[in-house]
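During the second year of the project, the team shifted from modelling isolated chains to modelling whole assemblies. The rationale, set out in the original proposal, was that interfaces cannot be judged from single-chain predictions alone. As a representative example for this report, we include one of the complexes processed in the last quarter. Its constituent sequences, exactly as entered into the pipeline, are reproduced here:
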Amino acid sequence: MPEELAATAHQFEDLAQQHEADELGMWVFLGTEVMFFGGLFLGYTVYRHVYFGAFEAGSHLLDLLLGAVNTSVLIASSFTMALSVYAAQKGRKKTLITCLILTMILGSVFLGIKGVEYGQKFHHHLVPGYDFNPEGNFPAHMSLYFSFYFIMTGMHALHMIVGEGLLLVVLILAAKNRFTAAHHATVEVVGIYWHFVDIIWIFLFPLLYLIGGR
Amino acid sequence: MAGHIVSIKLYALIFITLLVMTGVTTAVGYVDLGRWNIIIALAIAIFKASLVILFFMHMKYAGKLPRLVFASTLLWLAILITLTMSDVLTRSWDHPPQGWQSLSTSGQR
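Output from the structure prediction step:
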């Protein structure tokens, strides 16, 4: 297996060990990411506990349908990402490239819908620190809810943009025939990152959009 | 282990389950169930995240080291949440933090 030998860095016994080390590195990084987002989720939970009524009122101003559609779009992108890894494992270059492009398109659709939602918030004067002046009566602390909304969805969107960049790198490497059925750790590691960003949204959706009944 | 290949059939099954659960959690969002809204929503979210971690992220087939790292991640997250919430939930909030009150009663910012 001269090809496998060439892909193995000199500090590893074999390609399988290198592959495991690559994945381990991503899991350690995601551990730090969980603590980062955990801090945001915790801050959100504390203030939601203290000012529940204001958070509920703020939540009901979000577009639940757009949020649900976006959740489905992101889950679909995770599915195509999983298929990308499958194609890489089987050494099918064409399928890999198709699935990677589909993942990037679905990710862009998510960001586009998020952009539409942000546009609505600006239109309705719901942007704390810039233009917070909602129509009619609103609870005194509703701006706090929207601060959390923009910071949490904004940090998530930033991770999506980073993910799109990573996918582009994987796409270029795939087009250059840099992956084989044995050597494709990059696809797997980027896949794990992409799924993690999906999981963050899986928790953001109920916490931000689904407070109380509508 | 790292080389395990999950079948397309299983991936598709997970995908459909995730979509159905998204539909369920959205539908429940239109019904007022009091405190049960958040409990149901979070239970569904944890179920969905578990499916993604186990099958899409291959944790079910991972070696000991990734499992250990993942378990310690959950442990530190649990410490963060438990210690903070044990303070917040046992505190009397007759006087919520003043800074935000004075900022938002003016209706600005």
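Chain B touches chain A through 63 residues (CB under 8 Å). Residues 21 and 27 of chain B are 10 Å apart (CA to CA).
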